[in-house]
Amino acid sequence: MEKLLQLPTGPIPYTLKVSANRRTIGLRIDERGLTVHIPKCAAWSNVEKLLHEKSAWILSKLALRERAPAPMEWTDGAPLLHLGQDIRLCLHQDARNRMFEFDGATLYISQPNPNDTAAVQRKVTQWYRKQALADFTRRIELLAAKLGVTPTALFLSSAKTRWGSCNSKGEIRLHWRLIQAPPHIIHYVVAHELAHLKEMNHSPKFWAWVEKLCPNYSTARQELKVLSAQLHLV
Fold first, then answer.
1. Using CA atoms, how far apart are residues 17 and 19, in angstroms rounded to an integer?
2. Do residues 198 and 86 share a domain?
3. Fewest CB atoms within 10 A around its CB: which of 15, 58, 190, 203?
4. Does 34 lie in the same domain as 114?
5. Which domain holds residue 84?
6. How far apart are the first and last CA of the chain?
7. Residuewise pLDDT in 10s, the chain (234 residues)
8. DSSP per residue, 104-159
9. Cα dihedral value 177, 179, 180, 183, nearest 10
10. Last residue of a domain, one of 66, 93, 118
């Protein structure tokens, strides 16, 4: 059911969903906007009261959604990120599918149909994964030596909500999209996962190990949260 929340700043459209099994009122904001979930027996006065009490939160979340990065366009000249630096995608038509080339500022993709965006995306992803594996391997070797730990394996991840993970077998997983981020952010994520080889938790002892490898980890952690949406566009 579509409804309007009347605020001094103007009306906010939202979707109302009623559930017989629900016991509490819930608010959710995603790419579709605001959704309000309520129990079937909820008094409407309580729903309106909560919406007005949460109006500042609703407006701030909707504003963040509107500022979200535009979807990636896989076209010639499209902007990309590599280690925090702006680079450019250059597409060429070629009778053969050729290996990608990178000169430090431009990533060249040559294929029979440059307008085949799915093929372009696959090639860019392959390039990013190759860069990520080499970069992450080197960083893990350097930081593991400083911490005195020995990870058993590195795997590239495509997880939707995690930038990295470490298990009791000593296996490290790092999201390949991290290769777009500035080096100090990658450094933080690697330090975070290696610290789990000392403490498989998030206790004060764990964060002390992280700080040993990455003194500015708190800043890098916050920067990654801000950058996260942009990194996931690729």
1. 7
2. yes
3. 203
4. no
5. 79-231
6. 34
7. 888 888 887 888 999 999 988 889 999 887 678 999 999 999 999 999 999 999 988 988 887 766 656 778 899 999 999 999 999 999 999 988 888 899 999 999 999 999 999 999 999 999 999 999 999 999 999 999 999 999 999 999 999 889 999 999 999 999 999 999 999 999 999 999 999 999 999 999 999 999 999 999 999 998 998 888 889 999
8. SSEEEEEES-TT-HHHHHHHHHHHHHHHHHHHHHHHHHHHHHHHT----EEEEE--
9. 140
10. 66
Using DSSP, state whether 182 is helix, strand or coil.
coil
Look at residues 136, 120, 31 and name the one whose alpha carbon lies nearest to residue 80: 120
Residue with tokens 């990194």: 231
Report the sign of the C-alpha dihedral through residues 167, 171, 175, 178, in that order: positive
Altogether, the residues listed in the chain come to a count of 234
